[in-house]
Amino acid sequence: MEAISLHYGNQQISLRIPQENLAGVITPRHSAATLASSDDLVAKAIKPRATEFSNIVNGRILGILLPDGTRDLPLEIILPKLLPICQTAANVFFFICTGTHNAETPENHKIAESIHFHSAKVGISHYEIVVHDCQTAAFASTGVTSRGTQVRYNKRLLQPDCFLAISDVKHHYFAGYSNPIKNIVPGLCAFETTEQNHSWTMGSRSRAGVHPWHSNPALHDNPLACDQLEAMETIIAVRPFYSLVTISSGGAIQWTDFGKAQSVAARAFDQTDAWNSFMVEPVSKMIVSPGGLPNDVDLYIAQRALELTHEAVCDNGEILFISACPNGVGSERTREQFYDKLIKPLDTIAAVGQTDYKLFSHKPWRFAQLIKRLSRLWFHSEIEASVIEKMHMLPCPNPQAVLDDWIIRNPQEKVLIVDGANKLLLRKGNLRMKN
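Now predict its structure.
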């Protein structure tokens, strides 16, 4: 009997499964990374280009682009190593890139406190923190992209002479990858800019693992990511754009690079593919956890774990989704286009197209495609059972009972277990497991 632990909120859930019924356990790469080794990795990545970067920002205004509190990038490791090479800047703007997420959150306040602490520690005194709000910020415009997106962005972006984006790279189910471009588009753009760009999610070409900055030209054709790149380039124009990119898991950094944004992002994409992309032979039963907080803070955030892994399940199969969602279905601003649409009949949800798109409505549309394809989608969560049922899923108060029933019904059942799914990409094919 195998005991498997999966992340659930700030806890872990243990499941028992006979070894012969286990198709495999897939998690993000966990090397021997520790806080100490993560610290060393960041220092080594920065060192070769530290002088170059300090000279570029010398006497100029620097914009540092940080992910918001919904991301689990370990800034406490990064900032102490990164800020010393920013000391030569005349002024620093720290942008917390919220996209369409809420600006005023406890997590974003913690990021601001960390900025204050580490800036004081290295002697950066001339700085300002800008927490982006996609509704209330003052916006500037650079016109319209070739795909019809109006490029409206936070006006404070006009002030920096150069940029440094901190980006944790992982597969993204419609933007290809999380990457430095997303810190600006949609990270610092107006609601309608994000809405128009995200309408491209309603099609199969906007998918994980495909991005115009990929080292493989055959993997460039992602309309949504190409639109983001075009918009970003009109915003920053010729201003230098550097990035510290990481691949992290479990609060530790496994890999990092520092330099010009496009070059380091391309290398990060290759490394992400090598570590966290898996070809799997589809099974009829799968258990999925996004990886605990903040990846399962609410269903809106947690859903991406299903989007990145569902190809591993056969048609008419079953998924047991283990996701705490202490903040419920999602923020109030997503409710109308996410929850309110997700409780409509599945055929009605699935019939929506790109011309009908409203921001966040890709989420119920994708949910409907998946639920219609499966025989059951079980959901173990803090969300009330009645709410789960309204969203066409089956409440699961006892995950072990569901797993046991699968095996009772079919003693030869093979169950695939996935933890940290928001940083993985599973595709159909022959199973390729990690060493």
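Residues 431-435 have pLDDT under 50 and may be disordered.
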